[in-house]
Amino acid sequence: MPFRGWPVEAVEFYEGLAADNSKPFWLENKSVFESVVRAPMESLLADLAEEFGTGRIFRPYRDVRFSKDKRPYKLNLAAHLPAGYISFSADGLFVGSGLYLAETAQLARLRAAIDDDGSGSELESILSDLRAWGGEIVAHGQLKTAPRGYPKDHPRIELLRQKGMTMSKSWSAGPWLGTVQARDRVVDALRRARPLNAWLDRYVG
Fold this sequence. Notes:
alpha+beta; six-stranded antiparallel sheet; 7 helices; 6 strands
């Protein structure tokens, strides 16, 4: 079935789960979750597959084995696809793309590319365009100071401190969520992320 948005009942489901994050609530409302939350996400991923690749929906259950927070269920439904990440919740819709947490070798290549005047300036231009659109530039974390081997007064020190390089965009819940506008916003965000991902593929891998 083509994607037609998430109905208001999907937002209400997560509002209810936030108030009562328990197995009885989940079991009583699981059919609601499947029909108004998961089914639209499946339809959205099917619509996106041809252009952005096959997506995968994450499990709705939290891993509480090593967490002090023992609430069993996530308050969002997320999906990953080769081009990025999508999350739906009572708060609205979130899309992200890029390299969230670089491995050691990737991080070395990322910093070398940021340091280089040519590739570093290219990245600055890409990020400037994303910020002008309203996107956020985030990563798993950042150093408090310059990484080893780089001067503290480097012209791109803020980028060098990052442990990854991603763009993201979020939209607050509203009537638009129940329409194809939700898909259009996801498509727009993933397309705008292409220059960043192309840069990462070229210089970081």
